[in-house]
Amino acid sequence: MIKDLKILIVDNDKMVRLLLNRLISKKFKAEVLEAEDGLQALTVIKEKKPHMIILDITMPVMDGVEVMQNLRASEEFKDLPVIIMSSTDEKNTVMKLIQLKIADYILKPIDISKAYERIQRVLDKIEREYSIPKPIQVEQEKTETNNEEQIEKKILIVHSDGNVREELGSLLGNQYEIFQASTGIEALQAFLKNNIPFVVMGDGIQLINEIFLAKKMIDKNPKVKIVHLYTNFPPTTPELFVKMMQLTNNLNDVATTILNSFN
To answer: For the whole model, what pTM was predicted?
Structure first.
């Protein structure tokens, strides 16, 4: 038996979460976690390490397909069991998700008896395999005041290397308010919360990669300016960035180029 079993329910419909919460609490010895959108779900996954997810397809901020794509692109969570919830008119989307290795699916409106059977089936498989992903260490996101008068003087630095973030932050901090993030989730949260107009991101960002992250940021704010710092090869989507440059040891030159790109 899995010790301290955790199941995450992801749906923007509060009544659906309540229904499934009651089912799981009554029928299974599990801690029930909840999230109302995909971005919140990725945060919970990273912090709480659930053993299984029940994931709705249609949600704001980040939908079920986007969540699955990011999970399967992550070494940590590529095998995390996910049951998809979908309506009957989303069959084509379900077929796409099958390719992303969903564990099962539940049709909406939810039939409690069938939902119980599908959850039990996946839990039985988890019991047999007992393959639990390791948690990702999360750097605590900085809380900053969203001051409209400072909106044009904010830069978000997204890089997995803390030394790069700190040194660039020091070099750019005289002219901009600096925000930092080590993962794509932290970056998107900070971007949405603080209305940041300028972003510097490296490659190899965890869980939400730099290409998906850039697209999501542009979708939320088409005026955002993003500089990409690549290690070896530039990305194949130059249209997403105002500047692509190779990261070098001379961060003074890098910082100068960044400032020129944002001016």
So the answer is: 0.70
